[in-house]
Amino acid sequence: HIAEVLDWAEEVLNRVDRAEFFRRFAEEHAVQYFYEPFLEAFDPQLRKELGVWYTPDEVVKYMVARVDWALREELGIADGLADPSVYVLDPCCGTGAYLVEVLRKIDETLTAKGADALTRHDVKRAAMERVIGFEIMPAPFVIAHLQLGLLLQELGVPLSSDMAEHERAAVYLTNALTGWDTEAPNAPGKPHRKAHPAQLLFEFEEERDAAAKVKREAPVLVVLGNPPYNIFAGVAIDEERELSDAYRTATRAPRPQGRGLNDMYVRFYRLAERQIAERTRRGIACFISNYSWLDGLSFTGMRERFLGVFDQVWIDNLHGDRIISEYAPDGSTSETVFAVGGKSPGIKVGTAISLLVRRGASTDTGDAEVLYRDHDEARAADRRRSLVASLSNQTIREDYEVINSDPAIGFPFKPRLFSAEYMDWPRLPEIMPRNFSGIITSRDADLVDMDRTHLESRIDAFFDQKVSEAELAGIAPSLTRPDRWFDALAVRRQLQTRGRMTDAVKRYAYRPFDNRWVYWEPEAPLVIRPRPEYRPHVWAGNYWLAAAQKYRKGFSPPLVGETAMAFHLIESGANLFPIWLRGDGSSLFDGEQGAQQPNLSPPALAYLQNLGLLADATPLFFHCVSVLHASTYAAENLGALRQDWPRVPLPRTVEVLESSSSLGKRAAGLLDVEVVLETIGELRDVHHKALGVLTVSNGDAMKALGITARWGAVGRGGITMPSTGKLIEREYTDDERVAIVETAESLDVSAETAFSLLGETCYDVYLNDVAYWRCVPASVWRYTIGGYQVIKKWLSYRERALLGRDLKPEEARYVTEMVRRIAVLALMGPELDANYERVKADVWEWET
User: Fold this and answer.
1) Are 510 and 258 a contacting pair, CB within 8 Å?
2) Over the Cα atoms of the chain, what is R_g?
């Protein structure tokens, strides 16, 4: 029986100073220091898999208070949580923090109304009957009972220790995600299926049946808590899997895509929604969870559904995403709200608190009202304090912004601003319908190299039957290391029998402005994602545009080039749009000798035909480049650009299209590092001689090319991460200012505009103590694509400790070239903006 488990806890407590223990246990955050370190030491992997993180006390208090407020103000229940009809469920109650706070709120309300001798017994009855917790893990389950018992003891109404009276808190050891359907296999009276390990023990059958009775009969009006977040939640049994199925379709919004709905917390949202919208037909759900569902492409169906079944959706965005290094308004890194004492637990994603309200059985026919508020203080403690402080605001609605969610971009529950005409323009795939995913080798260390000779040497060793496995492990270790997708020995034997492909070494856009070499076998298992459908279309002269449907770190204009491209070239996935397609691309070789076809949709072809142009995607391709690189385009439409494919206005006249395309070709030449800078049309005479000059303060320049200023460091999993480095910010010298003015004038840009675009200061960027690149304009140094500073990222990969050598002279000079390319691209800004305004003034009416 459960009593045996509780007896174990009592035996432990009998060995300590009970008075001192309970005094300290009752202190704030006691469970955090008692339970979490225990689980971290006992089974850290289990803790991570189940998303077990202690919820900060301020967050718990805020959420419970907001639920109490919503019950009173939105559902008209005068006593809020204290009303006997309000059944509360925390479906993943952990150590009971939310349940304890709910009971404290009930006690506070009843006492304020005028307490009598039975008031505290009403609190006890609530703890036993209608403040319900489900927990799947035995350890927190026991502690939840202990915490509730301590609270009731503190209130003077302890639970009876006489088992005959059956006094227990309404906390049950169960899987909250199953057993709600009376026809489910685990319902009482049905044959028992394998579901949770605890259910295999006869002693827990009684507990399971009690939980099942609650699931069937309790008229739950409030569901709240902190559900686990884990995208790799494992295989769900049938009833769990069905929970997320409700969100896998959309009727008004774009269809959901990606794996986000597999995250565990989504199942808990569906559990809450089903209980409130379909069973009690009114109520409140309040969760703190991963915030990806607010605007992620995986959750369009989920948001659409919430708009239809709830009357209000209140969002408190707590930010703190450590995966993308989210920043606060003051520029400092935003901590996760779970950080305590400067230390952050395992949660890396940003979080948000949602409050979902359904007033009654007949909801409004329109969409729910979405109210949004940011909490973007850098420090977690400040953010938690602001949450609690906001509770004192009597007009709390004034703190929120009403979101008018647009179906075309998936009903985001965040502010999304864009120009009025933006939605009338075609999306990028509606112009150029074919796009491909870039290459993933999963063995970059050995299949990708900055030096072609080194790469060829490793590949030769791999194919050489005279080179043993042990020798190869020293030459190319990742090619000998098996994993579940890669039988290293079998693959090597197979490929040695076939022989090396003669044309498999390709130029490779690995990162922005960082082209390397890759050994790319289109169908062999050396490369984990070889993209055989992509390879036939890669040839010299066929340009590619790398864009993403959704940017985690804000919109980045597309990269352009002729080479093969990596999947992670920008964002976490690059979609690659070519000008031309060769053959039908249905197989690797069938189409290689076929005729080239323009990558154009039927409406795009009709558009060109109307302008009297040939069926050639080139002008439209480079027109897209020019528009997407205009800063005013990004500024006006940033909200929508963060949510879906960019939309591109098409000019009504051939003159404007050709002018825009010509401008896009110049920008593309700057972005494509394979193009010699001085050969780019009007840029031949640009005098950018002062920018990014390689300088050595003393000694032999050839001996000073090692990067040792800590630009790069090895992160978890051997990933190279940008580090602090060394740079000095300063004013321009007179000679440098003159040179910049000359460069600007050659591009018809005024001196004043040039310095506003490049920055009023510059940096000297150091390789080491004696060598540096002189005069890197501030905006050039800060230039980012995909959330990373381009130059800093390039340097991080070439730290001597990581690269294993000094830079070659041509590599050191390439940084100078990179500085100048980015500077000229910045100085083209006014021209790109003017072109966008000209296009936007007279737009072709697009018809799908």
Assistant:
1) no
2) 31
